[in-house]
């Protein structure tokens, strides 16, 4: 059993918080944003969620040095035991949510150190942070592959806000002739589908604003655990520097001179044999014309040609894209669920 011993004010979050057990001091320390820390965190994250593609050091570095600059508030901590990193906690207020008093959090504990109360202590730390930042709720993703995570959120009264089906496509299975014929039919009707690098070549001064405007209009239809707010061009533009993001992995559909659809993926730098579907969207005026199917054919074939062996995507259960992915041969593998809890209720429960 761990007993909290506070040597200085937790609310400042610039000092260490210590917990004592029979093995000695086990501190929660602020994450130090440097190259060595990026490498250690990438390895710890892979151990805590082995079913996800391994994060590269470059991705961890980008997240902490560039991505989070957009967040109004954020914090990151490591749980240390005998100089070994055995757990971590992250928190931020997402800038794409309308709510400015809701935290998105992550907690991870090394499998060898679970069932020792570390996750609970990290949750306490997040609750203290939330109260300090005047947040009324906090939530994060839980995967049904790990029953321990489900028991954890149930124990502390978290409520399910959204459930996505995560599906996997084995690229040794070729894209069906029916789907390829659909691609040819859409193109024959006058819709031009081009890759991202061709879009940049044709519109070097316009492609970013064009892409941002299209995505701003279409992403509003994608289910989200909190109401979305339009993302500024500057914040959207920041993701272009991500090591896992490349415009050449995207395909764009044009009806004459108008951008009407896009689909694209990502090849994970830490595990390049695996890829993911970033986003597929079509303007409302051009839906039910098989444009989304044609775009996914182009994007999926591109990932196959690049040597990707496994493609993962996720869709909320009522999202029409789920059925389209099943038609491609994506097989449901696990669920990603977003749980959320009231900060005041958590504080009460954790201090009783």
What would you say this structure looks like, in words?
This protein has 352 residues and is an alpha+beta fold. It folds into 2 domains: 173 residues, 3-Layer(aba) Sandwich (Aminopeptidase), CATH 3.40.630; 155 residues, Gcn5-related N-acetyltransferase (GNAT) (Aminopeptidase, 3-Layer(aba) Sandwich). Helix content is 33%, strand content 31%. Strands 1-2-3-4-5-6-7-14-8-13-12-11-10-9 form a 14-stranded mixed sheet, with helices on both faces. Helix 1 packs across helix 2. It starts with a strand and ends with a helix. The N terminus is likely disordered.
Topology record:
Blueprint: E1 3-5, E2 17-21, E3 24-30, H1 35-48, H2 57-65, E4 74-81, E5 84-92, E6 102-109, H3 118-132, E7 137-143, H4 147-155, E8 159-170, H5 177-188, E9 191-195, H6 196-202, H7 207-218, H8 233-237, E10 250-255, E11 258-267, E12 274-282, H9 291-305, E13 310-316, H10 321-328, E14 331-342, H11 343-351
Parallel strand pairs: 6-7, 12-13
Antiparallel strand pairs: 1-2, 2-3, 3-4, 4-5, 5-6, 7-14, 8-13, 8-14, 9-10, 10-11, 11-12
């Amino acid at each position: 059993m761990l007993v909290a011993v506070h040597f200085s004010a937790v609310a400042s979050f610039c000092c260490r918080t210590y917990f004592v057990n029979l093995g000695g001091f086990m501190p929660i320390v602020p994450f130090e944003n440097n190259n060595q820390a990026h490498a250690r965190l990438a390895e710890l994250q892979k151990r805590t969620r082995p079913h996800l593609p391994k994060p590269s050091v470059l991705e961890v570095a980008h997240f902490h040095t560039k991505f989070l600059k957009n967040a109004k508030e954020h914090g990151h901590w490591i749980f240390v035991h005998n100089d070994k990193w055995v757990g971590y906690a992250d928190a931020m207020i997402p800038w794409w949510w309308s709510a400015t008093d809701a935290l998105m959090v992550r907690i991870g504990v090394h499998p060898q150190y679970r069932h020792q109360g570390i996750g609970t202590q990290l949750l306490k730390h997040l609750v203290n942070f939330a109260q300090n930042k005047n947040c009324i709720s906090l939530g994060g993703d839980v995967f049904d592959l790990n029953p321990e995570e489900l028991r954890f959120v149930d124990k502390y009264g978290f409520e399910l806000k959204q459930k996505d089906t995560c599906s996997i496509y084995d690229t040794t299975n070729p894209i069906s002739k029916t789907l390829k014929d659909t691609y040819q039919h859409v193109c024959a009707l006058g819709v031009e589908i081009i890759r991202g690098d061709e879009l940049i070549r044709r519109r070097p001064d316009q492609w970013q604003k064009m892409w941002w405007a299209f995505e701003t209009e279409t992403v509003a239809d994608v289910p989200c655990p909190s109401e979305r707010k339009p993302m500024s061009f500057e914040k959207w533009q920041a993701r272009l520097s991500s090591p896992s993001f490349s415009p050449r992995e995207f395909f764009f559909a044009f009806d004459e001179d108008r951008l009407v659809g896009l689909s694209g993926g990502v090849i994970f730098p830490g595990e390049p044999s695996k890829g993911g579907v970033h986003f597929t969207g079509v303007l409302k005026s051009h839906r039910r014309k098989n444009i989304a199917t044609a775009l996914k054919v182009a994007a999926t074939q591109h990932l196959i040609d690049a040597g990707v062996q496994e493609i993962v995507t996720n869709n909320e259960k009522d999202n029409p894209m789920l059925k389209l992915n099943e038609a491609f041969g994506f097989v449901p593998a696990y669920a990603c669920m977003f749980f959320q809890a009231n900060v005041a209720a958590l504080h009460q429960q954790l201090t009783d």
